[in-house]
Amino acid sequence: MALCCAISNEVPEHPVVSPSSGAIFEKRIIEKYIQENGVDPISGKELSIDDLIEIKTPPIVKPKPPSATSIPATLKLLQDEWDAVMLYSFTQRQQLQTARQELSHALYQHDAACRVIARLNKEVTAAREALATLKPQAGITTVPQPAVAAEAGGVANQPTEQAGMSAEVIQKLQEKATVLTQERKKRGRTVPEELTTQEQLRSFRTLASLIGLHSASIPGILALDVHSSDTSKLLPIRQFVCGTYSTSQTTLLLRAHDGPVTGLSLHPYGRLYVLSTSEDQHWAFSDIRTGRLLTKVTDNSNVPLTTAQLHPDGLIFGTGTGDSQVKIWDLKEQSNVANFTGHSGAITSIAFSENGYYLATAADDACVKLWDLRKLRNFKTYSSTRGFICASSGRNLKCSTTHTATATGVRFGKHARFIKSASMDRTLKLYGLE
Question: Where are the WD repeats (predicted)?
Fold first, then answer.
């Protein structure tokens, strides 16, 4: 096989070998390259002309030096030009290879930088959501109980210890129930003149929206309640936490359960007490002023409690369960006194009538049932696949779809002057007349 120059790929007239790379070159070409660069063109190591090793070949009789006008002289000029072109071409190939390597490295760096930027953008978005969550909680009240949230972040670390239903608390509840019963008898069946009419309900619009409540990592509000005498006080809840809010400011956070809170109801006795239920199969009764847990009772059926509502008198209350039962409890005795069955899905909501004689329940079976508490029986059932507000005639008055996620709680204000709703989109909305 003929030997070829590593630079020109031609059979060399005077072949030499580089000891650095072992490659064969045309002597005149490699000498020019060494004079310009001083390195081996293949290995890149230092190389001098003296280091080149000549390869012995049969002697060739050379013609006499041609004159400048002869054909051999022209050929010599062309040969020199060819050598220069080969040297330039070889250098360009080396530079192209180096440029390709640098470009590949730059592309890898660009890809890594894009990944870092995307991660940082995601972290910034999460931080902004967390900041939006913390803003409504900036005014958390400090209370002496260790389980009530009083530090930045607003959630107690451990459930509150039970203080017990003292005789003083029971006496307050009994006295309030007596007063409420007497007031209800005086009112009789007279409809308050201040009560909002059906036409006004149809004209309700969104008046305000409180956004960014509770955790951004576990978004959603599971339920709420509005105080009957103070419309600025409401209780939205999420996970293990109950919170009291005044307009856009958190005033107190309670922790009374070991699982997600599913329902709550403010006691009619001023702003003192709140009832809550949870998936931990317990209902709890807490003092809002001090943040103390007064009592916590388990449901012996060992199923999650899904909702809760206090009777207008405040001495009994109802809870819904995941196995389709509605249970009536005596608050003073902390015992289950009656059960209602008939739904085929988990109970989602319950409500007592203003006169205290009737109970309305809703469940996942798309039914609303009305119960007579005196006879302990169901006397009416409504079925619907849409949310609605209905009057005594049972006619659909208005539907609302302002939330962007599932609506989890709705409460009327005093005399139905406004409606407040909560949703899994972490917002509270106020509806009323403009």
Answer: 298-339, 340-381, 400-434
The residues, ordered by sequence, that sit 6+ positions from 198 with a Cβ below 8 Å of its Cβ are: 391, 397
Q: Using DSSP, how many helices (H) and how many strands (E) does the chain show?
A: 4, 25
With tokens 């006295």, the residue in question is 175
- In the predicted model, is pLDDT for residue 387 greater than 70? no
pLDDT in tens, 68-84: 567 887 788 888 889 88
Structural domains counted in the chain: 1
SS3 call for 249: strand
- Supply the DSSP string of 29-73, one letter for each residue: HHHHHHHHH-B-TTT--B--GGG-EEPP----PPPPPPPTTSHHH
Residue type at 218 in one-letter notation = I
Residue 57 falls inside a structural domain: no
Q: Is residue 171 part of a domain?
A: yes
Q: What is the mean pLDDT of residues 107-129?
A: 93
Residue 380 resides in a domain = yes
Residue 398, class by beta-carbon neighbours within 10 Å (0-12 exposed, 13-18 middle, 19+ buried)? middle
Q: What does DSSP assign to residue 10?
A: S
Distances (CA, A) of 224 to 165, 238, 275: 24, 9, 12
Q: Tell me the longest C-alpha to C-alpha distance in the chain.
A: 141
Q: Identify the domain containing residue 226 by its residue range.
A: 138-386+398-432
Burial class (CB in 10 A: 0-12, 13-18, 19+), 177: buried
Mean of the pLDDT values across residues 10-36? 90
What is the number of residues in the chain? Answer: 434
For the chain, the distance separating the N- and C-terminal CA atoms, rounded to the nearest angstrom, is: 100
- What CA–CA distance (Å, rounded) separates 299 from 219? 28
Burial class, 377, CB count within 10 angstroms (exposed 0-12 / middle 13-18 / buried 19+): exposed
CATH number of the domain bearing residue 245:
2.130.10.10
User: Is pLDDT at 33 greater than 80 in this prediction?
Assistant: yes
The residues, any chain, with a CB within 8 Å of residue 48's CB and separated by 6 or more, are: 34, 38
What are the tokens at 213? 């409540």
Whether 194 is in a domain gets the answer yes
